[in-house]
Design a protein that fits this description.
The protein is of the alpha+beta class. The chain has 2 helices and 7 strands, in the order ααβββββββ.
Length: 140
């Protein structure tokens, strides 16, 4: 065996690299085309976007916060399974659908609301499972 010829013979390097690159390109193309054909990720429901206005009323022993849908997307049966509103950690009140600009929902705190308490609006996607906070207010 000629050791010197082994180090200088580069005939096989170029075809091997070419084959590896062609296989990699084929795999990547197959993955991209398969994603489009099978529609993977196309059934993801986007969270509706809306703005809310908040009004805080501390009258006597009970505190009340009123949320008003100020604009943006309407929450309806097509894009929302449930829209819940309440104190963070105790979000049990349902806001009846549909909810569009101008609609209001009062929330009464369990006892007086403390400064720093947070009121949140939680959106749940159709079919359940996926939730998102679409509005929040911190008691002054």
């Amino acid at each position: 065996m000629k050791l010197k010829q082994l180090f200088t013979d580069e005939d096989a390097v170029s075809p091997v690299i070419g084959v590896i690159l062609m296989v990699a390109i084929t795999v990547i193309l197959a993955a991209v085309i398969g994603t489009f054909v099978l529609g993977i990720g196309s059934n993801q429901q986007t969270t509706p976007s809306a703005s809310f206005e908040w009004e805080y009323d501390a009258d006597g022993g009970l505190s009340q916060v009123t949320a008003t849908h100020n604009g943006g997307d309407t929450f309806n049966d097509e894009n929302t399974n449930e829209l819940r509103i309440g104190e963070q950690g105790n979000v049990n009140d349902n806001w009846d659908l549909p909810v569009s600009a101008g609609d209001q929902q009062p929330i009464t705190c369990a006892g007086p609301c403390d400064s720093g308490d947070k009121i949140v609006i939680i959106w749940e996607a159709n079919g359940g499972g996926r939730t998102s906070t679409v509005g929040s207010y911190t008691i002054p």
